[in-house]
Each structure stands twice: as structure tokens, then as C-alpha cells.
Amino acid sequence: MRACELTDAELPLDIVLHTPGGLVLAALQIARAIRSHKGKVTVFVPHYAMSGGTLIALAADEIVMSPHAVLGPIDPQLGQTPAASLRKVLEQKPIAEIDDQTLILADVAEKALKQLRASAKEILMRSQTSPKAEELAEVLSTGTWTHDYPITVQEAQRLGLKVSTAMPAEVLALLGLYPQPVRRQPSVEFLPGPRRAQQKPQNVDG
After folding, report:
1. By the number of CB atoms within 10 A of the CB, which of 85, 104, 105, 170 ranks highest?
2. Rounded CA gap, 205 and 27, in Å?
3. pLDDT exceeds 60 at position 195
């Protein structure tokens, strides 16, 4: 948010997103700061931008993804429970058979779904028409998939998101400057640089 405010309004913004998501409040604040920027905003997703990361990406003019990178649904979660699943409890069980705590949670879930759908539409209006923004907000925020469902480049394009795969090599190089902490011995070792088969030594007579 601070970076957006300190950048000249007419200058383009390039944002690299690599995140599993987080709090809706924080993601919405960042997304709204991006949406209000006058210059072109491009979001780069080298590997993944799930949940709140996707919400931020939706505020951009264009999303650039690596060929196998993914986005994710933005449906709200109440603790470890999807809000959409709590709403289904009310639809599938008689009220008399639902305990008070679940009823309260289901009420909060319904409000969370409505709020996030409206916010997603507002953010998408930067790059989409009103009907398309409403359609995308409905699909992405109301529990169409599980919360960790990977939305590939191809599926994002089919949905109508403005996604390309023109990932600059510089973005991938930048990510290499921020190594992830290793908590256990990796099962695959990656050695950067070209790998070539060794030539067998030739027999020399003499």
C-alpha cells in the first residue's frame, strides 16, 4: 500500500506475487490500493498466488503467469471451515436440528460471502465489464471449488481473466534472491545451469 502511494500515479506498477494468501482485510487493502492506481498495473505470478494473493491479482490490468503457475479461489474461510460449506448446513438440515453455535457461524458465513463477492466485483471492474466482473466474482468467491483448488493458466483464461504467459526471465531471477527456508532434507536437488552428458574417454592404442 505504501509503495503504491509513493509511486507517481501515472507510472506503471509491476508487482511480483508469490504467496499462499492470508487475511482478507490485508488482501483487500492492497487490492484497492492497486485498483486506484492510474498507471498500468501488471501482476507477475511465477509459481502461485492463492486466496488473498489471487484477490490482489484481480485488481491488476493484466496477470502474467509462468506456464505452470496457479491462482486459487477467493472464497472466505471461518477458521478452518469454508463459509460456503457452513451456508449449506442451513440449506440441507432443518433449523431444529442445528445447534446454536452452528447457526451463528452460518449467519456470519452468509455475510462473509456477500461481502467478499461484492468486494471482488468492485476490484474486477478495473479490467472487466460490470456483467463479467459480477460473473467472475460469483465463481471465485462462493465455493465453486475447494479453497486450495489450483486455477491454471488455461482455466483462468477460459474464465475470462486477462492472463498471459509472457513471464520475463528477470522475474524468475528475482525470485532466486529470496530462497525459501529449508526445514528438511529436500527430496529433489536442483543444480542451476545446463546439464550435459559426460563423454566417455576414447581408447588410445599404443
Report:
1. 105
2. 71
3. no
pLDDT, averaged across the chain: 91
Grid cell digits, residue 131: 456483467
**Dihedral sign, Cα of residue 30, residue 119, residue 115, residue 48:** negative
pTM of the model: 0.85
Please report the pLDDT score of residue 185 as a whole number.
62
- Amino acid letter, 175: L
Of 57, 61, 75, 58, give the one whose Cα is nearest residue 16.
57
- Per-residue cell: 130: 460490470
Give the pLDDT confidence of 96-126 residue by residue, as tens digits.
Answer: 999 999 999 999 999 999 999 999 999 999 9
pLDDT higher for 18 or 197?
A: 18
Q: Which long-range contacts (CB under 8 A, 24 or more apart) does 115-121 make?
A: 115/76, 116/24, 116/74, 116/75, 116/76, 116/141, 117/141, 117/142, 119/28, 120/55, 120/58, 120/74
* Sequence spans of domains, the chain: 2-175
What is the distance between the alpha carbons of residues 188 and 206, in angstroms, rounded to a whole number?
Answer: 44
Alpha-carbon gap, residue 49 to 93, rounded angstroms: 35
Q: What percent of the chain has pLDDT over 70?
A: 87
Exposure on the CB side of residue 55, measured as CA atoms within 13 A: 27
For helices 100-124 and 130-141, the axis angle rounded to 10 degrees is 150
Say how many residues make up the chain: 206
Which cell goes with 54? 489471487
